[in-house]
What we know:
With 379 residues, the chain is α/β, with parallel strands linked by helices. 41% of the residues lie in helices and 14% in strands.
Amino acid sequence: MFKSKLPRVEQSIFSVMSSMANKHGAVNLSQGFPNFPVDKQLISLVSNAMKQGNNQYAPMAGDARLREVISHKIEKLYSRKFNPESEITITAGATQAIFTAISAVIREGDEVILFTPAYDCYEPAVQLMGGVAKKIQLKAPEYKPNWDEVKATITSKTKMTIINTPHNPSGVIFSESDMLQLQTIAEDYNLIVLSDEVYEHIIFDDLKHQSAARFSLLSQRTFITASFGKTFHTTGWKMGYCVAPEKLMKEFQKVHQYNVFCVNHPFQKALAIYLENENNYLRLPSFYQNKRDFFLKKIEGSKFKVIPSQGTYFQLLDFSEISKESDIQFAERLTKENKIATIPTSVFNKNKEDFKQIRVCFAKTEETLLKATAILNSI
């Protein structure tokens, strides 16, 4: 009889809540995708790339010009040079990059430290490789890592730790101090790090993204994953990339070439040109902060408790003064009765710990945000 390799994995909460939103005609602030148009210039660049004949396989590692532009971007922003020939790979979104990095280095019995709440693709990938996920719960409302707890969790079997900054769903960013402590721990215990940095360009209040690329020793033992979908609100294109030192990237590409081999060629050609205009990503913090501030201003009179998001396009709402329901029950009731879909955050926590918080996505048009905030204020 066939036996599932992932017996406890169920349908993604994002699919569940979006389906529920469609069924009940609810305003959908659950799944993390923008509902405003993509830049017409980027669409035109893709169309031109197709017309110019870039419709066959791209190079396995990705379009050479795109890798060069990514290398330049990282060096300019984080003062770290990654060789575009040997240390950068274009991927079918960040999720594929994350899966590939885990597949490349995790063996049967290896332990991987995860900080929960964690994006739901991490643990299944570890389990599929025969690894063991060791979860460390970040506590509301600060969601800051306890590095002493990290050290206490490490054993002789610990191979990797996965971080996510800016952090989904909390919106918290790791500080320079956090990254320096991570660097020391990774060096002391010989750990590989997987740094999920898909929201690197969505940072608020003049804070700085502390990429693993900024830190000399850390960058030499880290896979950094990024997402064009999140950056340029083209989530349906499934385009991302991974950067890592050559010794790690060689292992990454061994898996990548037999997984997807290469990814969408005309999109790569278009993104290479689009990225050369630095304003196309440097303007994003102010663009999304305006949306965050608009959303928060409109719910000032609501009963929800809020700590403003530091990054990502997500905001947590604390409903503890509104209801004693579980966050799953509360989110379901909001969708069915109030016609607004959100994400209960306990599904991402260790042992499903419930902090009475729901996550909303504010990467929406002003019209959508006005409808959503009117509903939230009525609850």
